[in-house]
């Protein structure tokens, strides 16, 4: 069956399932009695090589993932460039006295505003309070780095006093900066809180009478990732590093497209000096009525340079996605005229130069000036995010033609729209695009699935019958929805995670075709999310991986190097008797790896007849299980559903293992 026919036959059923509630797992057994199952594994037969990019990370600035999340900046609207210049700030002054705050428009799009503070009569004090991102996470005993850009206009404002406060308004740290003169300068100091506070705030007080200008008011914890000043939250990056990802896709996601083209992601506005990056509204600011977020903007403290650097830190291939002249088709669907597409073409070519160009080039020189003279070795680039229709193809083609003419080795990623079950005329649109991709032959095509748990279990064989002669597959966004697509009631429960584990066996078995896959979305702020479910949850101080995260981690940490046959009754294990499985050979470690999912409410004694290899004396296992399908991890129980390690002796050279009810088990054993 070819790929196009697969879509014709498969997506319709998925569309019906997408909005339904998940149902219980397999009822093959209705008691706690154990079952038995026998499998055959051919260790020395290769089905496919597993690419190093197989398991990766999809990154989008949704759910306050960057500002208020990964980017460790604690001050909201630090440069006064939100829609309301004092959004996130509160004036501190006596009513009726001579203290005024004036936002000044600079007519410079790369630094649109600063704040003028005029103090004629300070009364009990003149200052500003910042609320942070649903508060500020402040840590006892940890230095926090404060900075402010300031210049004197007239008078004698001689110093600025800084206070950090707990949720009760008690001062837990203070300091001051001096030396204000009539030139813009950056003044810095450090504050060390006397207690830990998740909902802290910051006050800045002006000492004296006169007029001063301020900009870029900033506060960072000093314990950032790799100790980089004004960098990333170490705990969140560590959760990513623990996945050992093969790629990092950025910056999204729908923010690539924007609500309209004026709000699209423009990478050139995100590089260079941090104080000259163009602050932009985040399209998730107003997307959902159930989770309004009028204070959600992008400061681009994490821009394309930081994304590339993060990918390098993680040992992951960078995978940027660029706008192709189309705004989000779920919103305005605004198009740039084809005769005005040149800036989009130039953005693609210039990005490759920024990533890979020598320091003698314009954009390679900028990369070097930012601190990275060596190329980032970009190999692949997405053109368009979730576009569809002829309008997409006619914009895709000239952009890709220009890229290939100058950089023929860059691999192109094309889209198939969003999940076919949730966008207008989804089945027909995906069918149309697959015909076009068969003609245009992009190296990689991106498919997305947001469905209920049953769909993921019922379609572990989704790619078994896809055509093998065309583009490779990137399953770039997927997540089981416990209630419905984007429902605020979705939970990262064990049912969703276990169903995804079953689906992943199918992706791994088809690694000759599916060379990359990633869950979406990645991050969610517990007090600021717009979309759920999500892989990792965090608040201002803490973070945890969901059960879905740990499923992904087990796969990405145990990929092996080659897919090998694992069968039950001479067939791949795709749900027969409630079981799903895949097997790989790890030629580097000299080990057999088996991933097996039991969706029954009974244990299963699994025996494996391994051909072509002699087994070691001990099998190690990592097991995730829970009989409560509604259970999920929390801040209080971040590892409630997570892998545990165990091992057992192999008796008589025969490999067998008892699979717990509702479980994912990863077995590793030496194989000679």
From TrEMBL:
<dbReference type="InterPro" id="IPR017853">
    <property type="entry name" value="GH"/>
</dbReference>
<dbReference type="Pfam" id="PF22848">
    <property type="entry name" value="ASD1_dom"/>
</dbReference>
<dbReference type="InterPro" id="IPR051563">
    <property type="entry name" value="Glycosyl_Hydrolase_51"/>
</dbReference>
<keyword id="KW-0732">Signal</keyword>
<keyword id="KW-0378">Hydrolase</keyword>
<dbReference type="InterPro" id="IPR010720">
    <property type="entry name" value="Alpha-L-AF_C"/>
</dbReference>
<dbReference type="InterPro" id="IPR013780">
    <property type="entry name" value="Glyco_hydro_b"/>
</dbReference>
<protein>
    <recommendedName>
        <fullName>non-reducing end alpha-L-arabinofuranosidase</fullName>
        <ecNumber>3.2.1.55</ecNumber>
    </recommendedName>
</protein>
<dbReference type="Pfam" id="PF06964">
    <property type="entry name" value="Alpha-L-AF_C"/>
</dbReference>
<keyword id="KW-0325">Glycoprotein</keyword>
<dbReference type="InterPro" id="IPR055235">
    <property type="entry name" value="ASD1_cat"/>
</dbReference>
<comment type="similarity">
    <text>Belongs to the glycosyl hydrolase 51 family.</text>
</comment>
<feature type="domain" description="Alpha-L-arabinofuranosidase C-terminal">
    <location>
        <begin position="476"/>
        <end position="663"/>
    </location>
</feature>
